[in-house]
Amino acid sequence: MSDKQIRINVQLDDKQVPEKIIWEADDGQGKQQVCKAMLLALFDEQTLETLKIDLWTKEMQVTEMDRFFFQTLRAMADTYFKATQNAQLATDMQRFVQYFGEQTKILQQQ
Fold first, then answer.
1. What's the rounded Cα separation, in Å, for the pair 97 and 69?
2. What is the pLDDT of residues 69-106, one digit of tens each?
3. What is the residue extent of each domain of the chain?
4. What 3 state SS string does the chain have?
5. Which terminus of the chain has fewer Cβ atoms in its 10 Å neighbourhood, N or C?
C-alpha cells in the first residue's frame, strides 16, 4: 500500500477572495499547475453526506465558468455510468449536459 498526496494552495487577496489556485500531485512529477476554478466533493463514510469546496478566482470569466461546468457535468455523467452501470439515468444526465451546452452556446443547437 502506498500513499499519494494532492496539494492545493490558494492565494487570497485582502478580502479573502481567491486570486490564484495552484495544485500539484505526487504523480505529476512535482509540477505545479495554476487553475482558475476547482470543485472538490468528498463523501463522508460516517455521515453519508457530501462535503464540498467550490473556489474560483476573481479572474474567472462567466464564459469560462460555463465551459467548466459543462465539462464537469459531462464527466460526472460518465463517472456515474462507470460506477453504477445505470444507463438510463446516465443518458438522462447527458441529455441535460447537451441542453446546458446549447443554452450556454458551448455547443451548437441541434
1. 9
2. 999 999 999 999 999 999 999 999 999 999 999 999 99
3. 1-58, 61-110
4. CCCCCEEEEEEECCCCCEEEEEEEEHHHCCCCEEECEEEEEEECCCCCCEEEEEEECCCCCHHHHHHHHHHHHHHHHHHHHHHHCCHHHHHHHHHHHHHHHHHCCCCCCC
5. N
Q: Which three cell numbers stand for residue 99?
A: 441542453
Read off the pLDDT of residues 31-78 as tens digits, 9 standing for 90 and up. 899 999 999 999 999 999 999 999 999 999 999 999 999 999 999 999
Say how far apart CA 57 and CA 15 lie, in whole Å: 12
Query: What is the rounded distance in angstroms from the CA atom of residue 110 to the CA atom of residue 108?
Result: 6
